[in-house]
TrEMBL record:
Domain of life: Bacteria
Keywords, comma-separated and alphabetical: Glycosyltransferase, Transferase
Matches recorded under Pfam families: Glyco_transf_9
PANTHER family: ADP-HEPTOSE--LPS HEPTOSYLTRANSFERASE 2, TETRAACYLDISACCHARIDE 4'-KINASE-RELATED
Name of the protein: Lipopolysaccharide heptosyltransferase
Keyword Transcription regulation: no
Species assigned in the record: Asaia krungthepensis NRIC 0535
CDD domains: GT9_LPS_heptosyltransferase
Length: 303
């Protein structure tokens, strides 16, 4: 039985994009035992994957000592294949039959297209998400099928990517008027909660039909919850990529980040960008009416 080492990202968004590589590996090697090495934020995303027997959490350390720790964890094993998406070079010092090391750093073009270089021939990658049965069951209890839900993700990892809270509130109120229940998602930690709080409070005070599902630690559960939503509207973030990979009709909002590189990828993934030069357009310049018009195309006809 083949052993595969898959070294991937720290950030959630990059990890979700990289799951297209993992899914392709699973398709090509259905009986392989796969070890994933990733950052702590992404660990619970890969844990439910049925082909993954181990997740090694790579916690960043001074002087790049985290790579030495990864080598120490992996060196006792012989690997049939090592896929290193980080361009770390640690793969060169591991016993392996074959290895594929992608160079790091940003470059023009879609990130998911760059990752296809992990394979010797052209391939189209599609991100995936995995959930455990108990996570699906819990998601059904939290978001029962008696209502129709709309996911809002008003946070991001840096301020420039965050559409104004008041705009999210307006979108949420219009969703409520259509009979949808807004569900606010955000990442773990007090900083993320503080960013999402104005949206949660404003929509909750409107008529009480808003659910706060931010800060969930198990990303398999988050994916299962997202799948129970009829539509997703959110900033360019890991949650946006997770929603798109889960097959949710997804509208990603872009300002100074580049949609040409990081647009969501999925069966029903869409984006809208603020007017102006790509990579420089202030996201506050993205009009509510533009977002609402595009979101309505993705929503069910009746809430």
């Amino acid at each position: 039985m083949k052993r595969i080492l898959f070294i991937t990202a720290n950030r959630l968004g990059d990890a979700v994009i990289s799951s297209g590589v993992l899914a392709e590996l699973m398709r090509r090697h259905p009986r392989a035992r796969i070890t994933v090495a990733c950052g702590p934020v992404a660990a619970s995303y890969f844990e439910p994957c049925p082909a993954v027997e181990r997740v090694i959490v790579v916690n960043k350390k001074p002087f790049d000592l985290h790579w030495a720790g990864l080598w120490w964890s992996c060196a006792p094993h012989f690997w049939d294949l090592v896929i290193d998406l980080r361009g770390s070079g640690v793969s060169l010092f591991l016993p392996a039959l074959r290895r594929r090391i992608l160079r790091g750093g940003r470059r023009p073009g879609a990130r998911i297209g760059h990752l296809a270089e992990a394979f010797p021939e052209p391939v189209t990658l599609m991100p995936e998400v995995w959930c455990r049965p108990e996570q699906e069951t819990l998601a059904a209890e939290i978001l029962p099928a008696t209502r129709t839900y709309a996911a809002l993700a008003p946070t991001a990892n840096w301020e420039g990517k965050i559409w104004p809270s008041a705009h999210f509130v307006e979108i949420g109120r219009r969703m409520q008027a259509r009979g949808l229940v807004p569900v606010v998602f955000f990442g773990p930690g007090e900083a993320e909660k503080a960013l999402a709080s104005p949206v949660i409070e404003a929509l909750g005070h409107q008529n009480g039909v808003v659910l706060d599902l931010g800060g969930q630690t198990g990303l398999g559960l988050v994916a299962a919850l997202l799948r129970r939503c009829a539509v997703f509207v959110g900033n360019d973030s890991g949650l946006m990529h997770l929603s798109a990979a889960a097959g949710v009709p997804t509208l990603g909002l872009f300002g100074p980040s580049r949609a040409s590189e990081y647009a969501p990828t999925g069966k029903a993934a869409h984006f809208v960008a603020a007017p102006g030069p790509e990579g420089e357009a202030p996201i506050a310049g993205l009009p509510v009416e533009t977002v609402w018009h595009e979101a309505c195309k993705l929503m069910p006809d009746e809430g």
